Amino acid sequence: MFQGASALNLDAKGRMSIPAKHRDALGIECEGRLTLTRDPAGCLLFFPRAVWETQREKIVAWPIAARAWQRIYLGNACDVDMDGAGRVLISPELRAAVGLEREVMMLGMGTHFEIWDATRLAASEQQAIAGGMPDVLSNFSF
């Protein structure tokens, strides 16, 4: 289960260092084999390869009416491998698609991660808070 936020910097080549707290788990779970894809929310989704393969099969089975959404998720999917220093290269196309510059946030979302431009994430969170809690969470409490 992946959780928590990590503030990271992309290097000049577009590589991102996986935080140590997740690096070992990803090495064990998927031998550093990962998949990135675009999310319409404005971030990248970052999956251990086996988790992505399960999601990919579900996406492939969508009806033809969802072809545009298949293009977003499958057409932008990119397999990456963690290098010996625990880094992954994010392609220029994916960086441009979601506006990743230098400062990024990596958020653990249970089975996968979201990778956001730090400024874009802050704006998205502000917008969500301003919109109030959705009705589906009306009975939620800690």
Structural description of this entry:
With 142 residues, this protein is α+β, with helices and mostly antiparallel strands. The protein has one domain: Chemotaxis protein chec, CATH 3.40.1550.20. Helix content is 35%, strand content 31%. The protein is built from five helices and eight strands; from the N terminus they run ββαββααββαββα. The chain has a six-stranded antiparallel sheet. Strands 2-6 form a two-stranded antiparallel ribbon. The longest helix is centred in the last third of the chain and has 13 residues. The protein starts with a strand and ends in a 12-residue tail after the last helix. The relative contact order is 0.23. The model has no long low-confidence stretch (mean pLDDT 95).
Secondary structure layout:
Elements: E1 2-9, E2 15-17, H1 20-30, E3 33-39, E4 43-48, H2 49-60, H3 67-73, E5 78-81, E6 87-89, H4 92-98, E7 103-110, E8 113-117, H5 118-130
Summarize the structure.
By secondary structure, the protein is of the alpha+beta class.
